[in-house]
Amino acid sequence: MSKIKLLSPRLANQIAAGEVVERPASVIKELLENSLDAGASRVEVEIEAGGVKLMRVRDNGSGLGKDDLPLALSRHATSKIYELDDLEAVGTLGFRGEALASISSVSRLTLTSNAGDAGDAWQASAEGRDMVAELKPAAHPRGTTVEVRDLFFNTPARRKFLRTEKTEMNRIDDVIKRLAMSRFDVNFVLRHNGKAIHNLPAASNQHEKERRLAQICGPAFMENAVHLDIERSGLRLWGWVALPSFSRSQADMQHFYVNGRAIRDKLVTHAVRQAYQDVLYHGRHPAYVLYLELDPATVDVNVHPTKHEVRFRDNRMVHDFLFRSLHRALAEVRPDDQLPSAD
Ligand code: ADP
Ligand code: MG
């Protein structure tokens, strides 16, 4: 008898889940990204007991037809890329086709969806070892609801790492805020244990955007922030940077987006830090919400399963552009100061 066996689909998914499903907040990130990729203009998130008992994400996006539902739950199945070339310039937040399969292997998940035209909704769930989805008719307007119950009920080792309800809820809140800052055009609603936590209406003009930012980062940040919007040789940097006088003791208000995706990157942190270098006291940290837009073909987002990291094709150019743009923006608001020239 052979010693080597194929893993059951469920076990394979649970192993993959180890990388992307660390805690309730990671589930919310994946579900919200799916809603945004589906073109939703309104996303409602409902949480019970810090997400361990229940997480429900409901959107009014494009929805899925009956035939697509079981596929959505299988691993390596995606509607977002079809060939290698597509990976070169991903325009969606998701593309790995793993999130729903991973989440459903470590929870009790139902996916209810209505693709619109035909008018009928279906619900899929998969729990067994082979993860074959069960389908039944349901009632749902156009869009999708994903319900995740009893996270890690079958992986006690993971469950042990969960923190208090409050801590898990704070992480969920962070994820929602981070996404809400990347999509001003979407209405985000969050409820915890039946109580309203956030309702961020869609923001279209500058004033409404700044109101959302004040809700998320606090009014003090907004009052001390300058708006910038700089474009050069195919690169665009826009957003809000706090005046040096609004520096913080921790690096806890630093939000950076590359083509709409929140990322953490050493090169970015370094460039920003350098731009603030002469105007910040040692040990203080700048606060900012910044958006970098560039040709998707010049940035690789497939670096890590959580997609928090990116790789730029031309590090030097991006670093220089960030440094110069921020240096200029900061110099403009402090004309009396002797800032050394960026050039
Ligand atoms: P990925 O997002 O990487 O494609 P997922 O496992 O997150 O992989 O989702 C699998 C597929 O299920 C998606 O490609 C999409 O077609 C579909 N899907 C998931 N969530 C939604 C949603 N909220 N609305 C519409 N389609 C969805
Ligand atoms: Mg996804």
UniProtKB/TrEMBL annotation:
Acyltransferase as a keyword of this entry, yes or no, is no
Q: Which GO terms describe its biological process?
A: mismatch repair
Gene Ontology molecular-function annotations: ATP binding; ATP hydrolysis activity; ATP-dependent DNA damage sensor activity; mismatched DNA binding
Q: Which domain of life is it from?
A: Bacteria
Alphabetically sorted, this entry's keywords are: DNA damage, DNA repair
Occurrences of domain DNA mismatch repair protein S5 (ranges): 213-331
Q: Where are the transmembrane segments?
A: none
Instruction: Choose one Gene Ontology CC annotation of this protein and give it.
Output: mismatch repair complex
State the protein's purpose. This protein is involved in the repair of mismatches in DNA. It is required for dam-dependent methyl-directed DNA mismatch repair. May act as a 'molecular matchmaker', a protein that promotes the formation of a stable complex between two or more DNA-binding proteins in an ATP-dependent manner without itself being part of a final effector complex.
Q: What's the family?
A: Belongs to the DNA mismatch repair MutL/HexB family.
Q: What is this protein called?
A: DNA mismatch repair protein MutL
> What's the source species for this entry?
Pseudoteredinibacter isoporae
Q: What is the lineage of its organism?
A: Bacteria, Pseudomonadati, Pseudomonadota, Gammaproteobacteria, Cellvibrionales
Q: Which residues of the full protein are shown?
A: 1 to 343 of 626
